[in-house]
Amino acid sequence: MACFGCGSGSLCVIICGFFRVRTLFGNIMVVIRLSRGGAKKRPFYNIVATDSRNRRDGRFIERIGFYNPVASGAEETFRIAQDRLTHWQGVGAQLSPTVARLVADAAKKAA
Question: How far is CA 45 from the centre of its chain?
Answer without folding.
Answer: 12
